Amino acid sequence: MRGRVGSRTRARWLGLRWVHLLQGGALMTPYFLLVMVVVGVVRPGVRPFSSEPGWQFLGLGLGLPLVAVTALLLPFVRVLEATTARTLACVPGGALDTEPARSWAARWRTAGWFTLHAGLGAVVSGSTLAVPPMTGVLLLLPFSEALRSRLGGGPWGADGMVWTAPVAGLALLLALAAGAYAAGAVLARCAPPLLGPTPADRLAAAERRAAELARRNRLARELHDSVGHALSAVSLQAGAARRLLDSDPDFVREALTAIESTSRSAVGELDAVLGVLRGDAADREGELARPPTLAAGLDGLLARGRATGAAIAFLPGPGVEPLDALPDETSRTAFRIVQEGLSNALRHATGAPVRIRLTRQQTRKGEELEIAVTNPLTGEATGARPGTGGRGLPGIAERAELLGGSARAGVGEDGWRLSARLPLTTASRADRADAR
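RESULT FIELD:
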């Protein structure tokens, strides 16, 4: 059974590759006719369309350079040839490049393939047109006196040799099939190196994938840090307002005002993210990637957190203030880190006081801004905090590394602690480039 399936597969491959070779012959026909017309114009006394093999091979030889030039000048030839090779030559699609030729190296390799396909296809096509009729004549030769008389003194004119004509005809037919099989195998073997991606194409594709992955990761970080924090704050503020609805109307009023402001901001940022994902707001991607600085957004962040009823203490160390004196890039990353730490503290340690400390330190690498967001433990198990899908803290670590710093979270002497170190001087820009 397995041998029968294998025979069917080989027969199918032979049929498809034969069609592929016939296609190559069809592609060669316009160039062959053009060369023959030019030869007839240049040499008026010559009959280039005669059946003499010499003229046929001359037309084939002069037409092949034109085939190569076509592939060099038209990059989309690579797409067409790769598609037909994958479909008819039974070449795995992953081994072929179905994009237009972008470099001259790819164009030259496409020209080599196109020339090989057209040349072998022309030979197999011509043989396919000539051999079957010849085989039919040889098979009928022993039974037709008229055919033998027309051949005259050919090799099968003698009566003893006439019965060898059918054998010769079958041999020609088998030779045609073997030649088509060999030509198809040559094309299938040459397709991956000639139509496959070049090292430069592989590098460019990897760079495009890396850039797209980095873009998606950046959008995911922004969506989590902005919209995720806003939704968490709204949930906590609504819960606090519900608990104090009867006892503290003023607090409820402040909480509802904070909910309104937070939700409006979240809707705006969500619209920006969706606009970038749809591809119709490419100019807004830069705005999305630029969160507020500490100077511009910290007061509002603390106000939204305090609207949940939590006691939040902001403790700037010496040299930190004024906040607008901090480098913008460092200040924006610091804002996202404080935002994530505050959001986690409010979500997982509801009612516990939160301390946010910023200090400026001198290290071997230069000046650094140290950020620490702490809150007492409330009986929650140590380790990764549940409820956020585990995306917030890895995103913070990525932000810090992209800037040339570091971030970590865990249980410390003062409870749960999210800490980060961010560079403040230009001495760490080499480290930032390595991280990127």
